[in-house]
Amino acid sequence: MEHNLLQDLAIARDDWLIKVRVVRFWEAFTPQNEKEPLYLEMILLDEKETPLHVRVRNNFISDFKHMLQEGHMYTIKNLKIAPANETYKPVKGKIMGWFLCTTSVTELLDYPQFIPRHYFEFASIQQLSERVEQKDILSDIIGTLDGFGNEEHVYVNGNPTRIRRLELILKENKKVRVTLWTTIADQFHNMWLSRMDGTSTIAITSTLVKKFRDEYSINSTSSTRIYFDYDIAQYANWAPNQHNKVKELPAQQNDSIENRMVRNRTNIRNIMAMKWEATTQEKVFTILATINDIDDTFGWSYIACHKCMKKLNKRGDQYMCPTCNEPAKYPTPRFKIQLEVSDETAAAKLTLFDRDAQQLLHTTASELLQHGSNKEIPPVLRNLCKQTLIFEIKLSDHNLKEGSQNYTVTRTFIPTSLIEEQSTHKSVQKDPISPQQISSDEEEEPLVFKKKKKQEAAKPRQSASNHQEENNGQDGITSIDEEQILIQTLRTPTSKRTRDGNGSTTRKRKRITRQIK
């Protein structure tokens, strides 16, 4: 019986007969369960060098896993063809294959047609730049290994997760950082221990591309496979011809959840005072702030493209993605919540996006919209008000260059007494402020924010300031507020203080208070 070429396969048939080589073979796991595979997956290649992504469902894995091996050739009968997934595709293409209970596999020991042993779709720097934060197609990369680190642990959704960091130099002599996760990190370690001397070229398949501080960051997925140069010698010309000694990368301890909670801790006033200096300036800070209200002027959600997560535009009965420049097949509601927050120094607006909103609310935007509309704030959203959280904020050029005071939240944390003690201790020793300081003739007191109940219960004190037009009147100061002022006093340089007759320290500046209603 004559076999079919992969380029001729079409949807709506489940009896295709093909002769192919398995050029890539792996088990796909979910982050929540690394023990039980979700699928058995492979890339098949025929004599025309046409690739095909094929899956075996988990209930059939035991039937087929022992029959297949990467690098071997097979005749596969009764293969079903279906539309390819819209996201996380390991190879380009509009179709994919599925094994059925009726599928049969026979190894080809003598096949006259040449089929390459490997298949890659290596991405250039230009392609990587186009795929930042994109999830439709995964990226294969190849480069010279410049360095790697030991196994580390980071926290993902509160759970410790194994990672290993690499640095590769690509063909364009551009260095990229690679993070290998969980089992892929183990795979690299085992392969490195058994490597041949002189190993320098490394290929990493099916990765996701991000950009952090103007540098590309490559992340492995459950579909990732790693190949050293002795496996892929024919692709060596894809990597720069460098043979420097591979260096050891230091661990990045700041990625632990505890360190992220106090990373570059500052306050809202300092954040608002920052100005653009250079592309290398620090742009990620944390603040401790209280949510006072939710601004629903533009709603609390948006309809997103399932590929790039950008906002869709509705045209007639269709949703169009301006980034992908095509109709969205699966428009998805996602959170975009405008929070009004304040600390003891100032008030600001923060934008909370889908991931962190889901973690805080324990629900999705789709579920909430089933019982309401985007024009009304659901009670579960209102419950965020009065909560005090640690917000990790990433400043953009929109903030630093254009002066926008609406800031993007990249992570939220629930504060603990131990973490806040560490933060206070670090603040007393070294104020983690900004690249840009507030300049004035006289150092200002922190702006003390009061809740209405505290104002009514506390004894009012007179406030005097050079800014009486902006801040006139009275406000109550509780013992907590006095403690905050004491902390600020300790942070004041000695040159700004004077000594009284008993040797105690007082401050030569005036208090500025502001009421938040």
Question: What do these coordinates show?
Answer:
It is built from twelve helices and 27 strands. With 517 residues, the chain is of the alpha+beta class. The strands form six sheets. A five-stranded mixed barrel has the order 1-2-3-5-4. A five-stranded mixed beta barrel has the order 7-9-10-12-11. A hairpin with a 5-residue loop joins β9 and β10.
Based on the model shown, name its key terms.
517 residues; OB fold (Dihydrolipoamide Acetyltransferase, E2P); five-stranded mixed beta barrel
How are the SSEs placed, and which strands pair?
Blueprint: E1 16-28, E2 39-45, E3 51-57, H1 61-64, E4 73-83, E5 95-98, E6 104-107, H2 125-130, E7 139-149, E8 152-156, E9 159-169, E10 175-181, H3 182-193, E11 201-212, E12 215-219, E13 226-228, E14 247-249, H4 257-262, H5 268-273, E15 284-295, E16 301-304, E17 313-315, E18 318-321, E19 326-327, E20 332-342, E21 347-353, H6 354-361, H7 365-369, H8 379-382, E22 388-394, H9 397-400, E23 406-413, H10 417-429, H11 452-457, E24 460-462, E25 474-476, H12 479-491, E26 497-499, E27 505-507
Parallel strand pairs: 3-5, 7-14, 10-12, 21-23
Antiparallel strand pairs: 1-2, 1-4, 2-3, 4-5, 4-6, 7-9, 7-11, 8-9, 9-10, 11-12, 11-13, 15-20, 15-22, 16-20, 17-18, 18-19, 20-21, 22-23, 24-25, 26-27
